[in-house]
Write a structure and sequence with these properties.
about 230 residues, single chain, globular, mainly alpha, 8 helices, Vanadium-containing Chloroperoxidase, domain 1, about 70% helix
Length: about 230
């Protein structure tokens, strides 16, 4: 895919995401949050409280670091293959960079937009915006946990394509948990997913600009297949 085609696709995806997110904020977020809040003390919501913790970067950053360490020691113990070692290391660095940069963007947007978390709605009946006025822990938009799990799972789906359905299912389940447990609105989750997708696609293209895929398989890829 050419750079122009990629930009055009991301632009249209961005417009679509903006429309969906705006519609969720205006018509869906508050009533949906109140609906799930009515089930807050139930066992199935408690189950989602466990699931939501899988979004933590404390899981996925160490996993990527472990991938680098395993690649290093495997190539050191077995027949040295510097090219393969570099390729594997680049794949895990791709995951780390994608998560870190998208996380920085999300935190900056949270502070700039200052949307109140659903807990303010449950407690005070408000769902206001306070640009640059709230502390980060009180800011809801976009969802950082959603961004974290989606960037991790998208990166892994590029690194191990055969497991992509599993990775995307995990991302969807954890993102849904943020709404179900009342930590975020649906609009927050929608925006978090879009930021994660953009970061993963752009960083994948940057890492594959020399023709070497981030997928852990042998052989180069043709430049025009990079998306």
């Amino acid at each position: 895919m050419t750079a122009i085609a990629l930009r055009r696709r991301l632009l249209w995806a961005g417009l679509t995401a903006a429309i969906i997110t705006a519609a969720l904020i205006v018509w869906v977020d508050a009533p949906l949050a109140q609906f799930f809040n009515g089930y807050r003390q139930t066992a199935w919501v408690e189950g989602f409280n466990f699931i939501t913790d899988f979004a933590s970067g404390a899981i996925w950053y160490p996993l990527a670091a472990l991938g680098i360490a395993v690649a290093y020691f495997r190539h050191r113990i077995h027949k040295p293959d510097p090219a393969a070692l570099i390729k594997e290391t680049r794949a895990w660095i791709f995951m780390i960079v994608t998560m870190a940069t998208s996380g920085t963007v999300v935190n900056a947007l949270k502070l700039a937009i200052g949307r109140e978390r659903p807990r303010f709605l449950f407690r005070d009946g408000t769902s206001d915006f306070h640009p640059f006025g709230l502390d980060l822990a009180s800011c809801s938009f976009p969802s950082g946990h959603t961004q974290s799990i989606w960037t991790a799972m998208l990166a892994l789906s590029f690194i191990y394509p055969p497991l992509r359905p599993l990775f995307l299912a995990i991302a969807g389940l954890v993102a849904a948990s943020r709404i179900i447990i009342g930590a975020h609105y649906a609009g927050d989750v929608s925006a978090g997913i879009y930021i994660a997708v953009v970061a993963a696609v752009l960083w994948r293209r940057w890492f594959e600009r020399g023709g070497v895929a981030v997928t852990l398989r042998r052989g180069p890829i043709a430049p025009d297949t990079v998306s």
